[in-house]
Amino acid sequence: NADNLPTIAISKEDHKLTDSYAGKQRKRYISIFPDLEPGEAYKAGVIQMIKEGRFVEIVRDEIYNLIDQCGHKYDGGIKQYLEALRQYIEKYGVPKAKG
Hints:
By secondary structure, the protein is mostly helical.
C-alpha cells in the first residue's frame, strides 16, 4: 500500500532546502486552495496529481528539486529509491490517492 512507498534518506538540513519542506511552499506555490495553509495546499496538490494519474511526474519533480538544491550528493540514494520504487510498482501497481 501507499504507506509503504520507498523514500530517499536525506539530512534535515538538506530537506529544508527542498520545495516540499514544511512552510517553504509559501515561496513557490500559489494555492488554488485558499482556505489551506501552504503545506496543506502542497499536499492537496500532490494528492490531486496522483488522482490524475501523474505519480511519475511527482517523483520526477521531487528528484529534480533535490538535485537542484543539493547537487549530486544523493545520486546513490536516488538510484536505490528508483529501483525500490520499480519493485513496489511491480508488486502493488502505481500508487493511488486515498479518498
